[in-house]
Amino acid sequence: MKQIFHKIMSLAMTFVVLFSTMSFTVNMHYCGDTLVESAIFQKAKGCGMEMEKPSTEGCSITKKNCCDDEQLSIEGQDELQLQVDKITFEQQVFIASFVYTYSNLFEGLENNVSTYEEYKPPLVIRQLYKIDETYLI
Predict the structure, then answer these.
(1) How far apart are CA 45 and CA 48, in angstroms?
(2) What residue ranges in the chain does DSSP mark as E strands?
(3) pLDDT of 12 above 80
């Protein structure tokens, strides 16, 4: 039980460190005011209604484009505190108390203590099952 819990906590902490240090960009394509498509790690394909630029420079018909592309960049944490000497005294006390409490949390749970093992079962004075028996004749 303790090993499984330890593995689950290690896996959870791995994901926390991974996602807190990872940077990524979300590309979104709006057609009008409606979000049509969103993509992570790649460009959104769009709705297919994007306006083409005029092929000739003399022709200047301008029409407002209804489509809009937006990017949302989420920056990950770049600074990880790896040096122990920058930890304050209160943080050291917290870490020490957490480690002590966690190490003693599951101690003694592997020994199942049964209080009934020391007591002897009661003596059988009469056979109760024979009193309650019914017979079909």
Answers:
(1) 8
(2) 24-31, 34-40, 67-74
(3) yes
38 Cβ contact partners less than 8 Å away, ≥ 6 residues apart: 26, 27, 28, 29, 44
Angle at 73 between CA 44 and CA 32, to 5 degrees: 45
Mean of the pLDDT values across residues 41-61? 67
Q: Can you tell me the distance from the alpha carbon of 47 to that of 49, in angstroms, rounded to the nearest whole number? A: 6
Report residue 114: phi and psi, to 5°.
-110, 125
Task: With beta carbons less than 8 A apart as the criterion, state whether 71 and 24 touch.
Answer: no
* Separation in Å, CA 90 to CA 79, 94, 98, 102: 21, 6, 12, 18
Pairing of strands 24-31, 67-74: antiparallel
